[in-house]
Amino acid sequence: MIIAMAGQPNSGKSTLFNQVAGYKTVTSNFPGKTVKYTKTTVRFSGEVMEIVDLPGTYSLTSFDLAEVEARKYLLKKEADVVVNVVDASLLSRSLELTIQITELDVPMVLCLNMMDEAERKGIHIDTGLLEDILGMPVVPAVAVKGKGIREVFQAAIETAQTREKPKKIEYSRDIEEVVQTLERKLEEESHKLKIPSRLLSLKLLENDHYFLRYVTTPQVLEMIKEYQGKLEDRHGKPSDVVISSERHAQAMNIFEQAATVTEPEISMRDRLDDVLMHKYLGYISLGVILYVFFNVVFGAGQIVESYILDLFESVIPHLSLYLGGISLKLVEGLIEGFAGGVGIVLPYLVPFLIGLAILEDIGYLPRIAFLMDTFLHRIGLHGKAIIPVILGYGCTVPAVMATRILESDRDRFITAAISTMIPCAARTTIILGLVAFFISANAALVVYIFNLAVIVVLGLILSRFMPEITPGLILEMPSYHVPSVRSVLLKTWLRVREFIYIAWPFLIGGSILLSFMNYVGLDSYVNTILSPLTLLLGLPTAVGVTLVFGILKKELSLVMLMQALGTSRLLEVLTTTQILTFTVFVIFYIPCVATLGVLAREFGAKRMGYITVMTTGVAVLLALLVRVGGMIL
Amino acid sequence: MDTIKPGQKARVLEVQGGWGLRQKLSELGIFPEQIVTIATTSLWRGPVLVEVNSNEVALGRGVARKVVVEVVS
Fold first, then answer.
1. A87, A252, A381, A564: which sits with the fewest CB atoms below 10 Å from its CB?
2. Which residues of chain A fall below pLDDT 50?
3. What's the pTM value of the predicted model, to 2 decimals?
4. Which of A241, A264, A472 is facing B62, going by the closest CB pair?
5. ipTM of this predicted complex?
6. pLDDT at A139
7. How many CB atoms within 10 Å of residue A493?
8. How many CB atoms lie within 10 A of CB A467?
């Protein structure tokens, strides 16, 4: 049995999904975080079900890639039942999608999520009445608190078994007439395309480009134009406006029958935006929030880092008492790789991800998009582009994926290109582990600001080369939510797990490999090949091999650096300028393998190549700049 | 809509621009005859925050300019 979960963005589909699937997909409080669908198989009261969590979509007309994905899946009609998850506090608007899903002519269940929020907003819904009007089970739920989950899936299983379809929602008489006549005439087309005739007729009347592309016969196109004309003549409005206004009216009508509205409770949360979104105070708060955020993360990380590194550093000299030759080298490599993981990466990664999860769940990310919109316009993007950029501080892979929330291909490419240069958690560990640890915390801050400045300039340059007008910001502001400890910790764990399972073995394996190469003298070949670059940047030639490893995983560069130079007390072998040059180069040069993979998948090999060449060029140029700067000062 | 002051209510008269923009805004509840409240505007020709049916939507300045409204008291 296949159960598909569909609904508008930020209605809680993923939260509901995670409640039954264990924690499988990341949930956040911003519209459009699910960009691909996730599947899971669960056993529930004796039934084996496949549950599909679709990206959010406002309607069956789609604008960004995530919405296209949702519609494609729904049109395939693989699901035995569609669970339409709606934010009950936005019922009237959400019903517009519900109406469109009923037109798909599939068994349905309506899940009224966030019932507590609806009550707070003064919206009281009579679920029984709504059930009668729509002709499908209506189940109230509060997914974050785990309420109503069992009932939703119970209803879904029953509906899938009876295969009972919802009632047809009748439009006003004159529109219904046009739709039904067209429906009859399109029967053949509908059969051929496997799209229900009512949905097809409505979408074609609405001039939906996606559905129009399916129609190839000129006579049919001619006929559609004729019927669109009929609606336009009668209502004096473009045909798409006629249909969408009618849908608004029907949704409103159902809402007014099934819900009563009283005065909303005014809470602290509503007042929050008076400060956080204020003309001036908004930016001050943003500055304070980010300052506190990074300070806490840096602070927490630094305390732990020095202890753990000292511990491992003290172990290594004792090893030679027990081991010798190649085995000593390999064990040393193993320990250094292990220490790199616990000592350098985790102390910063964990607090960073917890902080990010809290900001996400509160609902602050879309607010940052609003505040940054005006600046991003200056580099030819719009506010939503800030979301991939912020995620980029965590990991570049989800950042590149998140560009799917942007509408235009050009915006997606530019945003992805600049996101790859944002210091991800791995590169953050390099900045913190090298610059903050060996030079000073302020120097690390300067590196971040320098990085941002470079990104702004590059954004400007890319926009110049691709002078297309960005479609402009259209973004829903979700209400603030108090983050739940469980959700924050689970999300952090989900992301840290990626590191532990995927990156850490790389670190340890890479470290052992380097020890081995060092033992047999292979590393010097690599270093010789790269010596023109290292010489140009004024770095020791031994650094060459670490840069190659860095392409696999960026944090490898740091662990390898200590390996290659034979000490973790780097100041004994490097000058501060050399440390800065190395850091700047590592931040900007070729994205890691995982990022290259996702870039190739999302944008194609050619554009992945462009980004690689560009970032490497920028890295060399900037590292040189630091070297020259260091010589002058 | 980009010239309305924060706190003012307005009725949407028309969404100028193409089919895409019209549909997209309509999905978010911004369509002719709808009453909206401007919640916040921002500096340097930044976006505006519009409240519609107790839900907030941010619109870039360029988008807001394409929404023709009349102030209602």
1. A252
2. none
3. 0.77
4. A472
5. 0.88
6. 93
7. 15
8. 8
